[in-house]
Amino acid sequence: MDPAELRTRLDQATADLDPPFAAVDLDAFDRNADDLVRRAAGRPVRVASKSIRVRALLERVLRRPGFAGVLAYSLPEALWLHGEWAGTDLAGTDLLVAYPTADRSALRALAADAGAREHISVVVDSPEQLDLVDAALGADHPEIRVCLELDVSWRPVAGDRRVHIGTLRSPVFTAEQAADLAARIRARAGFRLVGLMGYEGQIAGLGDAPVGNPLLGGLRRVLRRGSVPELVRRRGDAVRAVQAGGPLEFVNGGGTGSLEETGSDPVVTEFAAGSGLLAPALFDNYRAFTPEPAAFFALPVVRRPGPGVATVFSGGYTASGPANALRLPVPALPAGLKLVATEGAGEVQTPVTGPAADALAVGDRVWFRHAKAGELAERFTAYHLVSGGAVVATTPTYRGEGRSFG
């Protein structure tokens, strides 16, 4: 959509609201969901909840064909979602907790709930994590579903861990290490190995066409071309080695930024994706797909310090990750604005500059995009859902439901 048209549409739909507030364009959200299904090419997409953090939006996408299950980011979150969906059409949704847990009270709650134990799996990558579960639950605890996490980063120099490209997650890198941990899990009472997962952050999380930096884009494309064949071979070997000791229910891989590459791996049975639904600013930098921005937050102009500058209230909603300009919110509407280098996005005020600033009056809105998808929900208690030029619902975020999972 033309930026001026989109701005008018959002302004008119939310005219009765006083900013700051956040809005989601449901029409763009649904089109992005369709595109993720298209890119998945027949394999199911498990929704990464950390990239959404709004129960109504999770429910909306889970009811669409092509989506199945949730990739949760904490065990308390998975338990909460399981309980909220009991008695609904989403009862029994499969929930995979994608990060190891040290939450003993949540483990005890899981052990005490037979229904939750049937539908929630937790990730492990070392025997020490199994020891923690045993210590929290005691001897002879009920069976806990676990998923083995494989390190799917790239070590281009003969597998030397000192040259590590990707996220620092699991210590399990080789097929032999995966088979060994799988055997240890299967040999211990109270655990059932159900899956294997790996997040290829060096592919999924790094845009290969960064705006204004073709040299970096070229370097990242070289990285992809080197990493993908090695990963397909090694993950395939790992899955076959683990399955030699017993079947797996699923092999999870991917991320919004790598569905095409992950799709070249025949052992992957499902994809993980979430950010592509809301299309934050970091996802403007990929060649293979172009999601529509769907999540925005509006801030009011409160000052005009001088020509070419307007100052809005609040705005310091920076994203996690390395502390650089890519983690700052982006002033998106009206087009032609940028942050001021000496102030960035501020705690209680954010100046913006550019050709469009002179047309802004006190009381006007500037629409921003967060750099990442889910973290915006930590700043607002509700999202206003816009469709067809009107707010059709206002729904709480996790924060709005009194939930904070870290």
Helix content: 25-40%
Binned strand content: 15-25%
Q: Give, in order, the helices and strands.
A: HEHEHEHEHHEHEHEHHEHEHEEEEEEEE
Please tell me how large the radius of gyration is. 22 Å
- Please give the count of helices: 12
Principal-axis shape equals globular
Strands, count: 17
**Structural class, from helix and strand content?**
alpha/beta
Low-confidence stretches: none
Distance between the amino and carboxyl termini: 35 Å
Largest sheet: 9 strands, mixed
> What's the rounded overall pLDDT mean?
94
Structural account:
By secondary structure, the protein is of the alpha/beta class. Helix content is 31%, strand content 22%. The strands form 2 sheets. Strands 1, 10, 11, 12, 13, 14, 15, 16 and 17 form a 9-stranded mixed sheet that branches. It has an 8-stranded parallel barrel with strand order 2-3-4-5-6-7-8-9, surrounded by 5 helices. Helix 5 (104-111) packs across helix 7 (127-137) and helix 8 (175-187) crosses helix 10 (214-243). The longest helix has 30 residues, at 214-243.
How is the topology of this model organized?
Blueprint: H1 3-13, E1 21-25, H2 26-40, E2 45-48, H3 55-62, E3 67-72, H4 75-85, E4 95-97, H5 104-111, H6 114-119, E5 120-124, H7 127-137, E6 144-149, H8 175-187, E7 191-198, H9 201-204, H10 214-243, E8 250-253, H11 259-262, E9 270-273, H12 275-278, E10 295-306, E11 309-313, E12 330-333, E13 338-339, E14 349-353, E15 365-369, E16 382-387, E17 390-396
